[in-house]
Amino acid sequence: MQVPTDPQEDGTTGSADIGTLGGMTSDLVGRLGLTITALSDILDIERAEIYRWMRGEAEARPREIVRLRLLLDAFEGEEPGSLRVFHRHWKRELADGSTLRVLLTMGDLQPGRIGDALDEMRPAVKRAMAEDAARGREIREAPHPADLLSGYLEVGPR
User: Fold this and answer.
1) What span, in angstroms and rounded, lies between the C-alpha atoms of 93 and 22?
2) Which pLDDT band holds residue 107 (cuts at 50, 70, 90)?
3) In a 10 Å sphere around its CB, with 0-12 CB exposed, 13-18 middle and 19+ buried, how is residue 100 labelled?
4) Structural domain boundaries of the chain?
5) In this structure, are residues 44 and 105 in contact, taking their beta carbons and an 8 Å threshold?
6) pTM of structure
7) Tell me: the pLDDT tens digits for 33-54?
8) Contact at 8 Å (CB) between 21 and 53?
9) pLDDT of 8 higher than 50
10) What is the helix (H) or strand (E) element at residue 6, kind and residue range?
11) Residues 6 or more apart whose Cβ sits within 8 Å of residue 103
């Protein structure tokens, strides 16, 4: 799929084969762990719109596609799941007085400043990820309602 990239001086956009909109979104959310809420804040859109992209039911505006591409470029090389931890820390003040949240929600994303912020935050994020792993953090699937009903019928009320 050809999607627009950086706007040109005449207001048009170039294009590059960077995959589908759903693929870009899934990469940020699924592999890297950025929350849907954080992504909706960064893009200044409703969460429901992002879910529609992921299901292939809607297309993004060129501005949103450009921001997604810049985000993917900025987060290239980050560990899987790390963006969830970056998001936990994104309101912490950085050395220049800004926060990652401010940098990611600015009207014009500045990849250099975002990269500097990620570099500054990375040691704390790696520590937090190691602590999470040491605690044995595991995601358990909620039991299916039918299983709960079966257990109730077999054992009775407790």
Assistant:
1) 32
2) confident
3) buried
4) 2-137
5) yes
6) 0.66
7) 888 888 888 888 998 998 888 8
8) yes
9) no
10) strand 2-7
11) 109, 110, 113, 114, 117
